[in-house]
Every structure is written in structure tokens, then in C-alpha cells.
Amino acid sequence: MIALRPPPVSRILSTRTLLPPVYHDAEAVEQAFMAWLGGQDHGLRVRARRILRNAGVDGRHSFLELREIFAPRSLDESMAAYRDHAVELGTRALAEGLEEAGVAPDEVDILVTTSCTGYMIPSADAYMAERLGMRQDLLRLPVTEMGCAAGASALMYAARMLRGMDEGIAAIVNIEFPTNTMRIRDFSLENIIATALFSDGIGCTVIGTADRPALATVRDWRTHQVRRTTGILGYHLTDHGFRMNLDESLPEVIASHFGSAADALLVPNGLSLRDVAHFVIHPGGVRILERIDEILSPHGGSVARSREVMRRYGNMSSSTVTFILDRLLRDHPAPGPALLASFGPGFGAHQVLLDVHAAEVPA
Prior knowledge:
This protein is of the alpha+beta class and 363 residues long. The protein has two domains: 11-208, 3-Layer(aba) Sandwich (Peroxisomal Thiolase, Chain A, domain 1); 216-356, Thiolase/Chalcone synthase (Peroxisomal Thiolase, Chain A, domain 1), CATH 3.40.47.10. The chain has helices spanning 26-36, 42-53, 66-69, 75-101, 124-132, 150-161, 189-197, 250-266, 286-296, 304-313, 320-330, and strands at 11-18, 22-25, 59-62, 110-114, 139-143, 169-176, 201-208, 216-225, 233-238, 241-246, 278-281, 336-344, 348-356. β9 and β10 (241-246) form a beta hairpin. α8 (250-266) crosses α9.
């Protein structure tokens, strides 16, 4: 009888994060935010200020100055800016991530990119591959409509694609510029909340099945789709830009399904929430983190790193879990299981189970 060889295991070789060059602190953001709402009803302005101050974000980055974020721009202008900066910053993040992993651009077999805050064809990965001289047989997968969940989804897709490669390398680049999607004439609560929460960031993760120094192993993954929830979260592309759809039930939907979704991944691997050493949870907002903390704390878990990334940088959509993972791996963590989870339109939880190694990474 012929013994079947198990598929190659993917390992995380490096993580890298990159922030656009312009930084806006909380005070400057509040001044611009309230000036934008200057002509609106007093009650709305009071509520909006409260939302901004309770968002849990101390500062945020953008490639735009505040006056540009809160100024009228056409969809053409916004997408032209997106294209330029997606290629420039995405290429830089990819180059730095590959260098840290000790991987040359022409060694990469698979390039997965995530972005829900801009639109371009060819997608940014085509330009990135050309600039870095990547191979002509490179497999490219742009993930464009998964929202915040794509941070976890891309890691799943890359690991799955590597299963047939004994010496394969995949790079994942998250490119998100929510500040470039500001709808200046939209004074809905959804747009106010999105403006208060979201910020820009770029992440890169390099994984491979080759025998190289690694930081963690991708052990398993699972998605959990919640029925009858397609309308609670998403973007609608309109003549005036991206209109946010954000239902107030979202925190409770996540909280009510978090445990069962996590068990669907953990139990087949002989684990429970109590066995998880590290949690890399996408911080969709303060209320979401509070509800997840309530679930994790009886099991000894915490979303402290998610809170800290949210406080320092805001919600960077699909890039955010890469920032949290990068922070975890640079904190010289104790080895053990890590649960990486992000949530997005559909609506669903996308999760990856990692085994963190006892390796150190550069500061």
C-alpha cells in the first residue's frame, strides 16, 4: 500500500507594516471633523463628537492632509490618488517584507493582495510584480470585496495554494486607504462612524513551505458564514464614492457567533479557547472588542493587542490583523497556539489557527 505524504506545511517567514506619511493626532482630527459638521443640527454634532471621542483612536495616518480628506473630490480624483499610492506603498511594503524574510522577488510563487478601499484594473499587484522583477509565471490573486475579513482570508488562500508546493513562497500585501473614501456630503451616522474609526495602513506577510527560519506555522483555518446577514455590513459604490453600510446590530451578531465560530476551528484541532496563548482579533470597533473581551476573559484570553493597535492606528480594514500579528511576533511571544480572526461583509468570521514558534524577530 502506498503511504500518502501529508501536504507541505506553510510557515510565516516575516511580517511587515507600513504607514502612509501623513499623521493626524486626535485633536487635529476632531477640529477638522467638527468643522465638516459645522452646518448640521446641534444634536447630530453633539452625538458625532461623542462617537469620535469614544472611538478609541488616538491618531491615524493617511497620504492626505486633513484639508484634503474633508474637501470635495470626485470619484475620478479619489481613485487616481488610490492607484498612485497603492502601487507605490504596496511595492515598498512587499520589498521590505521579502527582504526581512530573506526571499528574493523572483523566488515568490504566489502574490495575494487585499484592498476594499479603491478600484483599479490592472490591480496593484500587477504593477508591484513588474516593479520588483517578479517571475512571469507568478500566480496573482487580488482580493477586493472581502472588506476587513480579507486580512485573515488572504492568509488562508495563500496557505491553501501552497499545499501543492514543497518549496513554495507566497507574499500577502494588504493595502487599505479608508481616508480616501470620505463622502463629504454624507452626514449619515454610518459615514460619521466610519470616519471616526477608519484609518490607512499597509501590511505584508511572507509565508512558505520551504525549510527556512520561521516565526509561526499555519496550522488550520475555517470560515463561519452567518445566515441572513448580508445586509449588515458593506460598501456601496456610488457616483459620490463609497457609501458605508454599517448596521447597529453588528457587535451583537459578532458576539453571539464568536464562540461557535472559534470552536469550529479549535475543537477539530484538540483545542478550546482556554488553550489559545495569543489572540489576534480584528478590532472592528470599541463595542466589538468589549463584547469579545467578555467572551475571552473567563478563558484567560485578552484583546489587549487589538485595543493597542486600534488606539494607535485606527481600524485599517484588512491591514489591521497584520499589524496585530506583527506586534505579537515582535514582542518575543511565548510559543503556543494563536487564533487570528477577522470579520467582514457576507457576514462572516474568517479565522486562522497558528502555532507561534519560540523564535525572535528584529525590533
